[in-house]
Design a protein that fits this description.
By secondary structure, the protein is α/β, with parallel strands linked by helices. It has helices at residues 14-19, 106-113, 118-122, 147-154, 190-202, 223-226, 231-238, 252-261, 296-304, 333-341, 353-370, 373-378, 381-385, 387-398, 405-420; strands at 2-7, 32-36, 39-44, 53-59, 71-73, 76-80, 90-102, 131-136, 163-165, 170-178, 182-183, 187-188, 212-215, 227-228, 243-245, 264-268, 284-289, 308-313, 327-328.
Length: 423
């Protein structure tokens, strides 16, 4: 396990140095509670004055909330139950394993939602006969579990038809409540890692493998409003022997197969580096930062996989942003020095001066479009970046009385298409 920070801007290094050596492993063994006639509650969004504290989880037969069913999920904390009328409670004569709350975001799924899946890996022989119950995080998720999310459970032996969505308070004959094996930024237990090991070791395909993989976001549907500038970086790695893959176009089995045989993964910061959870220990990882704010979840994942990690600040972060961007990547001096030190074939600068200004126009329009007053409040950006900065921006953002969201959207798309001509 080690970090190379030679390509991180000096002003951003302290956050890595302060957090890079943290020990996350908790050696205590995971346990599971058995709740006879247990009740599973649908997710209830935080009420007024509750902050991020949401309702949900599991109750015992007498209506007592089970603390082991607490969960952090996509900006909320399931921290308490809520009162229900027994006559409104369904009864299902099945023994189920409680999965927890589900939201279809791959990064949050891997880091916050699969922490109870160690139970399936540990009891693999019985998994085909298990029923799994989950609830939808209904304030941010309007679709049931499907696709690669469901395939994750299938790769642990669970049958698709045995996965149950709980849509109203439901009492089951028995509820198995596994302990969470991980809380990102705080701890993980060996069972969390063993869950991914079990999936990786069970995947065998007759498909090509590559020792060097570049994982891209260029095929992502929301790219036009969130990210600009990756293409020259992807081209650099592709021309130097990396196989480019777009994970959203691959089954989970194929992704796991590729990670199983990958020796060096290069990718943009965010969710994509989390996929080393499916790799072997000691993998080499190059993370091209699209923002200057450190992703604390990734530090823990790096530690779990004992990865050799090089961070490269490949962005122009002119303004503070939240998780949705916009992000402006660029072939800047850090990327060029990295390429030179790694003996990669490269030009001194791929960026066209006109193209840079077009990208900056896209960045500005995207910023106005996404960084609204509600976004600042939702992500607590005033606390993160300073009240003066964000309140100052918010005040003048609101004074744009002539601001037409639809017209700005058209302009943003035009600048996006124009900028692509210079890549």
């Amino acid at each position: 396990m080690g970090y190379v920070l030679d390509y991180v801007d000096e002003m951003n290094k302290a956050q890595y140095e302060e957090n890079g050596d943290k020990v996350y492993l908790d050696n205590a063994e995971c346990s599971a509670e058995v709740i006879s006639k247990g009740i599973i509650l649908p997710y209830m969004r935080p009420g007024a004055g509750e902050g991020i504290n949401a309702g949900g989880g599991c109750l015992d037969e007498d209506g007592n909330w089970m603390p082991q069913s607490a969960q952090r999920v996509v900006g909320a904390e399931i921290s308490h139950g809520y009162a229900i009328e027994k006559e409104d409670c369904l009864y299902v004569d099945k023994k189920v394993v409680y999965f927890g709350a589900f939201h279809p975001h791959w990064g949050h799924f891997l880091t916050e939602q699969v922490g109870r899946c160690w139970y399936f890996a540990k009891h693999r022989e019985e998994a085909a006969n298990m029923y799994v119950a989950y609830v939808r995080k209904n304030d941010t998720c309007n679709c049931p579990m499907s696709g690669n999310y469901m395939e994750f459970l299938e790769l642990l032996g669970i049958k698709k038809e045995n996965i149950i969505e709980v849509e109203k308070p439901t009492q089951f004959r028995e509820v198995i409540l596994p302990e969470l094996s991980c809380r990102m930024g705080v701890y993980y237990k060996k069972e969390y890692k063993e869950t991914f090991d079990a999936i990786r070791d069970n995947v065998e395909l007759k498909e090509n493998t590559y020792s060097q993989v570049y994982m891209t976001r260029l095929k992502s549907k929301d790219l036009r409003s969130t990210q600009m500038g990756e293409k020259p970086i992807e081209r650099l790695f592709r021309k130097n022997g990396f196989q480019t893959i777009a994970p959203e176009h691959l089954s989970l089995r194929k992704q796991v197969w590729l990670m199983k045989h990958c020796k060096h993964l290069a990718t943009v910061s965010g969710t994509l580096p989390h996929n080393i959870l499916f790799a072997n220990d000691g993998i080499k990882l190059t993370i091209l930062n699209r923002d200057v704010v450190l992703n604390p979840y990734q530090l823990q994942i790096n530690r779990i996989r004992d990865a050799e990690v090089t961070y490269v600040d490949a962005c122009i972060a002119l303004l503070p942003v939240f998780a949705g961007g916009p992000f402006l990547l660029m072939m800047n001096d850090n990327v060029i020095r990295y390429a030179a030190d790694c003996h990669m074939k490269h030009k001194n600068n791929y960026e066209n001066p006109i193209g840079i200004h077009v990208k900056l126009a896209w960045y500005f329009f995207s910023y106005l479009d996404s960084m609204t007053e509600s976004g600042i409040k939702r992500w607590n950006l005033d606390k993160k970046y300073g009240e003066y900065i964000m309140n100052h921006y918010g005040f003048y953002r609101n004074k744009l009385g002539y601001y037409d969201k639809r017209k700005v959207e058209v302009l943003r798309k035009c600048f996006y298409r124009l900028a692509k001509l210079f890549e």
